[in-house]
């Protein structure tokens, strides 16, 4: 439960940071918002939740100036917002937005990206000032972050890029800081860095800065939110103090039910299936990695300690029994083909089964895409539209469907739940268990402890190699942290 007070935006005497009434927005025939209402008090932390496609990101984009509303009234910090609202105008009155799809320029370094965000940084000393501003913000939120501020952003791992994006959003140059919108800000962060960010949210809220936190990690909502707002089908359908809700209550308000982790058949870490992929021990104190047919194997530990490199080493694209399928967590860099349609992105790894003679059957491709659209609830009006017309969570569903539709016996998951709603997560968990029951093997890197509870066993990484193997019954936050910092070594069970 949240330790925050049962505050609401209409609490007597509390100034209002944002008031939105009857906000509507359509993209062609798709109605993204159908009359949404939202009020945020100064210094209030709002947890905004809802399934993928509920309208959360669209509403936040309207507040941040990235979109123009079709109807409704919007007031920010006492300023009525007209049709000429823009990101620069929003920033000038104190609104910042940290987007789920990172907006950093990959060919610029960290200081240069800070200058892009703060146009007031100019003159001969702009680099020194930009470096100081972003450096202080990073240090305040993520102590010991280890980021080289001179590095080109595109060369950095996704967790570091997300830390820079977050720190830039909280940084202050000349414009005030009144409202920070965080759209899935911890999706690429491990638990330690996510906890640091949540502590910073409470610190700035105590200083009067409002925060809207959009996340599918419900534990984070309960940890920091004063009030929880639920969206469904383009409108706000519920709002309550966080302390008055349980996790089950919140999932029900969102329109679903949450399963617990299923009992694993190999709960003692043992498995008798054939070894499908393996890596030898990578040095002194390391353990060998293997995944057998029918197993779900987890990778854990502090982010950046070799988990993604191990997944890439296991990845063998191609056809036949030796092939693997891959679900990228960094979908913009490693996942989607932005110029292709939703159906083309989904069917890419299943083309061998779609051939009719020497050609790919358009009908078979459409039928495959429609089948997976139903199975995993991809919310799209037309599967022939470009994939970038989908929300981030729905793009991730397409990547899941692509991997599961392939014939590869091994599926590699690189922290794949970025921006995916709780209902879809439950469906994906069921699909993974069903496919494992048919003999497929899954190797799953996750920064979320709850997801690791679905694994038969978990390898913990430190300094570029797997240093412990925990059977399912031994997986806990304490055990993973202990192994991450060199507290103990477990062999194969």
Automatic annotation (TrEMBL):
Pfam families: ABC_tran. The keyword Zinc-finger does not apply. The keyword Transmembrane helix does not apply. Gene3D superfamilies: P-loop containing nucleotide triphosphate hydrolases (3.40.50.300). InterPro entries: AAA+_ATPase, ABC_carbohydrate_import_ATPase, ABC_transporter-like_ATP-bd, ABC_transporter-like_CS, P-loop_NTPase. GO terms for molecular function: ATP binding. Keywords: ATP-binding, Nucleotide-binding, Repeat, Sugar transport, Transport. Residues 18-258, 263-488 form the ABC transporter domain. PANTHER family: CARBOHYDRATE TRANSPORT ATP-BINDING PROTEIN MG119-RELATED, GALACTOFURANOSE TRANSPORTER ATP-BINDING PROTEIN YTFR. Belongs to the ABC transporter superfamily. This is Ribose transport system ATP-binding protein. It comes from Labrys wisconsinensis.
């Amino acid at each position: 439960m949240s330790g925050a007070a049962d505050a609401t935006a209409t609490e007597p005497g509390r100034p209002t940071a944002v008031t939105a009434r009857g906000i509507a927005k359509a993209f062609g025939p798709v109605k993204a918002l159908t009359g949404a209402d939202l009020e945020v008090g100064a210094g209030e932390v709002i947890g905004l939740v809802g399934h993928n496609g509920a309208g959360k990101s669209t509403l936040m984009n309207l507040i941040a100036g990235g979109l123009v509303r079709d109807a409704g009234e919007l007031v920010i910090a006492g300023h009525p917002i007209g049709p000429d609202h823009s990101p620069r105008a929003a920033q000038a009155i104190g609104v910042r937005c940290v987007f789920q799809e990172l907006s950093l320029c990959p060919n610029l370094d960290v200081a240069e990206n800070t200058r892009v965000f703060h146009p007031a940084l100019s003159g001969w000393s702009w680099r020194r000032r930009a470096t100081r501003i972003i450096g202080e913000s990073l240090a305040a939120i993520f102590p010991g972050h280890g980021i080289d501020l001179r590095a080109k952003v595109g060369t950095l791992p996704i967790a570091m890029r997300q830390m820079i994006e977050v720190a830039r959003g909280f940084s202050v140059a000349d414009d005030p800081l009144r409202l920070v919108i965080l759209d899935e800000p911890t999706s690429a962060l491990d638990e330690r860095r996510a906890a640091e960010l949540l502590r910073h949210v409470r610190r700035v809220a105590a200083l009067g800065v409002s925060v809207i936190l959009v996340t599918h990690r419900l534990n984070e909502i309960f940890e920091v939110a004063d009030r929880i707002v639920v969206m469904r089908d383009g409108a706000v359908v519920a709002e309550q103090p966080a302390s008055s809700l349980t996790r089950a209550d919140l999932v029900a308000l969102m329109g679903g039910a949450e399963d617990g982790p299923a009992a694993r058949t190999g709960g003692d870490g043992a498995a008798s299936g054939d070894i499908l992929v393996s890596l030898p021990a990578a040095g002194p104190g390391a353990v060998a990695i293997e995944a057998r047919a029918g197993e779900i194997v987890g990778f854990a530990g502090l982010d950046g300690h070799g988990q993604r490199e191990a997944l890439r080493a296991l990845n063998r694209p191609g056809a036949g029994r030796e092939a693997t399928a891959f679900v990228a967590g960094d979908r913009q860099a490693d996942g989607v083909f932005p110029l292709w349609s939703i159906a083309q992105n989904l069917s890419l790894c299943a083309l061998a089964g779609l051939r009719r003679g020497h050609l790919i059957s358009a009908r078979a491709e459409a039928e495959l895409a429609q089948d997976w659209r139903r199975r995993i609830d991809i919310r799209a009006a037309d599967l022939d539209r470009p994939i970038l017309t989908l929300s981030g969570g729905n793009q991730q569903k397409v990547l899941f469907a692509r991997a599961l539709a392939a014939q590869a016996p091994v599926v590699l998951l690189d922290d794949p739940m970025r921006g995916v709603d709780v209902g879809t997560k439950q469906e994906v968990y069921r699909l993974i268990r069903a496919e494992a029951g048919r003999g497929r093997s899954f190797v799953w890197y996750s920064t979320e402890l709850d997801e690791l509870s679905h694994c038969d066993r978990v390898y913990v990484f430190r300094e570029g190699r797997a240093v412990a193997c925990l059977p399912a019954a031994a997986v806990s936050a304490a055990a993973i942290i202990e192994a991450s910092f060199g507290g103990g070594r477990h062999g194969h069970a």
